């Protein structure tokens, strides 16, 4: 009831849409999207895109936001947040394979450690594709002289992830372990690295193309941004999220 100068009572009925998920192995994430995104992208497409970029929340959110902006001609604030639930880590029944590997779960093994710079034993060897960008309009990347925004750079990296997955899927036989997984994806990775990367490591030959060598946790921190956070969750042979 409204009387005198009291403010009117405003009621709203939420529009709730549900999509059945296929369990934690297929959809281990939670998506939060602004109303312009929900209006522009069908709920099932949201789920499909999140599943396509599994454990890569930045890539998934970037793809969803890009599609929503395109559908709305850039006339709305399109915000997407993904909470990605990581698989159990460690030995025993919680040990998991990297995506793309075939066969039964491997038996529990003691983690192999490798001495690296600084004497640390918790190290990993990584290869990467680096794209430089400038958020200022009209700026160009330093090494190749091309105009590239952050959105442009992330779009290229999402395409690279798609190409790597498509190449892996096209293999006649699924890799049986992490070493074989790295071997079968190396050729495509080298092609993409040489084509797109602005890092000097892209000039290295063979399987060293894009190679950063053995990195300790401190090395990863020094690389800045979210680099350490992104690589800490990786399993051998797995492709990382966009850092």
From TrEMBL:
Q: Catalytic activity, per the record?
A: [protein]-peptidylproline (omega=180) = [protein]-peptidylproline (omega=0)
Q: What is its EC number?
A: 5.2.1.8
Region Disordered, as annotated, extends over 88-117
- GO molecular function terms attached to this record: peptidyl-prolyl cis-trans isomerase activity
Which keywords does this chain's UniProt record carry?
Isomerase, Rotamase
Q: What class of enzyme is it?
A: isomerase
Residue intervals of the PpiC domain: 121-243
Q: Quote the InterPro entries the UniProt record gives.
A: PPIase_dom_sf, PPIase_PpiC, PPM-type-like_dom_sf
Designated name of the protein: Peptidyl-prolyl cis-trans isomerase
Source organism: Zooxanthella nutricula
According to the entry, what is the taxonomic lineage of the organism? Eukaryota, Sar, Alveolata, Dinophyceae, Peridiniales
